[in-house]
Specification:
The chain is mostly helical. The protein is built from 18 helices and two strands. The radius of gyration is 21 Å and the shape is globular. The relative contact order is 0.16.
Length: 415
C-alpha cells in the first residue's frame, strides 16, 4: 500500500510536463506563471519534509501516509475542477501537502522492516517501483489525453487516492512488533535499538545540528531538484519547440529519463551495499548528471538516439541520490531515521521549487512574443538560459557530494 501511494506521488510530481500546454491554454499563463503553478506542489512538499519526519517517527507510517492520501486525493479532485488559476494553485498545493508525507513514511517503514545491510538496495527498489508512477505520467498519460480531458484524469486519480487512504489504515502496520514479531535487529541476533525517550523537539534538534547530514541535502537540492524541475515540466515544451516533437513523441524522452532514474537508483543502492561504500556512488552520480546537463544545453544533438542517450544519462546520474538517504540514516540514532530522511529530502524539493519558476522566468526574458494556439513558443536560446540555472545547481550538488561522510554502510552511532 505504501508503494502504491508512492507511485501516485511520482505521477502527481511529473504530470504537469505532459499537460503543460493544456494548463497554459486553459489558464492563459506565462512560462513563469506555469512554473509557479507546477512548483506549488514543491513549495508545500519542501516545507513539510521535516514535519513529515517528525510525524513518521512519532505516529508511524500507517496513520501518517493514510492522512496524506486523504488530503492528496481531495487536492487532485479540486485541481481537476478548478475554474481559475488561483483555484488550480490551491488544488496543486493540497496535493503537495498530502503526498509530502508518503516518501518519508515509506523510508521510515523500510528502516524498521528491513535489515540495515540491505537498506541501500531496498531504497533503490523503492525508487524503481515508485518511478512506475512517474513513467505512467509520461507516455501513458499522453495517450489517455487523446480520449479524456486532463480534468477527468485528475478527478479520477483523486478518487483512487481516497480509496488508497482507507486501504492504508486497514492493511499497513508500523513495525514487526505490531504483528507480534521481534524487531529485525533481534531476528539477526543483535541487541534491540532503544526507542525514542525524549520530546520530539529535542530529537529534531539533534538531527538538525548533525553536520554530517547536511551535504546530502545539497546533493539532492542541486541534482535531483534540477532533474525533476526539468523533466517534470519543461522537457516536453523544450522538445516541442527545439526538435519539433509532438506531445506523445516528446513524452518518450521523459519516460526514458525516468527509466534511467529508476535503474540508476536501483543500481546505486545495490552496488553501495555490495562494496560497503556510500560516497563514491553519490559523487559519480553528480558528475554524470552535470555532464548530461552540459550535453543537452551545448552539445549539437538531435532527436533520436543521441537525444535519448542524453535524457537517459540525465536520469541515470540522478539515481545516485538514493544513497544519500542511507548516509543520512547512518549518521543519526536509528529512532531518528524519519527526521534525518526528511531533512535530506527537503533539499530535493527546495531545488525543484526554485528551479521550475526560475527556468520559466529566464526563458521569458528572451521570448519574442510568438504564440501558437494560445501557447507561448520559445527559441532554443531561451531554453539554454534555463539550463544555466540547472548547471549552477549541478555544481552545488558536486560540492555537496565531495563533503559526504563515508559511513561504510554502518550506523555511526551504534557500537
Amino acid at each position: 500500500m505504501l508503494v502504491f501511494a508512492y507511485m501516485l506521488v511520482f505521477f502527481h510530481r511529473m504530470a504537469p510536463a505532459v499537460v503543460s500546454a493544456d494548463l497554459m491554454r486553459d489558464f492563459a499563463t506565462s512560462g513563469a506563471a506555469l512554473g509557479s503553478l507546477a512548483a506549488m506542489y514543491f513549495y508545500i512538499y519542501t516545507a513539510m519534509q521535516i514535519p513529515a519526519g517528525v510525524l513518521a517517527d512519532t505516529l508511524g507510517a500507517r496513520f501518517t501516509v493514510a492522512a496524506g492520501n486523504l488530503v492528496a486525493g481531495t487536492g487532485s479532485i479540486c485541481f481537476g475542477l478548478a475554474d481559475s488559476f488561483w483555484a488550480a494553485s490551491c488544488g496543486r498545493a493540497l496535493v503537495g501537502l498530502g503526498v509530502s508525507v508518503v516518501f518519508v513514511g515509506l523510508f521510515k517503514s523500510n528502516s524498521v522492516w528491513f535489515s540495515s545491510r540491505n537498506y541501500g538496495m531496498v531504497s533503490g527498489l523503492t525508487l524503481l517501483l515508485g518511478n512506475i508512477g512517474a513513467m505512467a505520467s509520461a507516455g501513458p498519460l499522453a495517450a489517455l489525453l487523446g480520449f479524456y480531458s486532463w480534468r477527468t484524469i485528475f478527478i479520477s486519480l483523486g478518487v483512487v487516492t481516497l480509496v488508497l487512504a482507507a486501504l492504508t489504515l486497514l492493511l499497513v502496520r508500523n513495525s514487526p512488533e505490531d504483528l507480534g514479531f521481534p524487531s529485525v535487529r533481534e531476528m539477526e541476533g543483535l541487541e534491540r535499538s532503544e526507542g525514542r525517550s525524549r520530546h520530539w523537539l529535542t530529537d529534531l534538534k539533534e538531527v538538525v545540528v548533525t553536520r554530517a547530514a547536511w551535504p546530502a541535502l545539497w546533493v539532492n537540492m542541486g541534482m535531483v531538484g534540477g532533474m525533476l524541475a526539468f523533466v517534470g515540466l519543461w522537457a516536453i515544451p523544450y522538445l516541442r519547440d527545439t526538435q519539433g516533437l509532438d506531445r506523445s513523441a516528446a513524452s518518450i524522452y521523459t519516460t526514458i529519463a525516468l527509466g534511467g532514474f529508476a535503474v540508476g537508483s536501483m543500481l546505486a543502492g545495490w552496488v553501495s551495499d555490495r562494496i560497503g561504500r556510500r560516497k563514491p556512488l553519490i559523487v559519480a552520480g553528480t558528475v554524470i548528471y552535470a555532464l548530461a546537463c552540459l550535453g543537452l544545453a551545448f552539445f549539437p544533438w538531435s532527436s533520436g538516439f543521441t537525444g535519448m542517450a542524453l535524457f537517459a544519462l540525465l536520469g541515470f546520474g540522478s539515481g545516485g541520490f538514493i544513497v544519500t538517504f542511507a548516509c543520512a540514516k547512518e549518521v543519526v540514532a536509528p529512532p531518528l531515521a524519519g527526521m534525518a530522511v526528511g531533512l535530506v529530502n527537503t533539499g530535493l524539493f527546495l531545488g525543484a521549487a526554485i528551479i521550475q519558476p526560475l527556468y520559466g522566468w529566464m526563458m521569458d526574458r528572451g521570448w519574442d512574443g510568438r504564440l501558437v494556439d494560445g501557447v507561448r513558443v520559445y527559441q532554443p536560446a531561451d531554453y539554454n538560459l534555463g539550463f544555466l540555472a540547472m548547471l549552477a545547481f549541478a555544481l552545488l550538488a558536486i560540492i555537496g557530494a565531495s563533503r559526504i561522510r563515508e559511513t561504510r554502510c554502518c550506523n555511526l552511532t551504534l557500537k
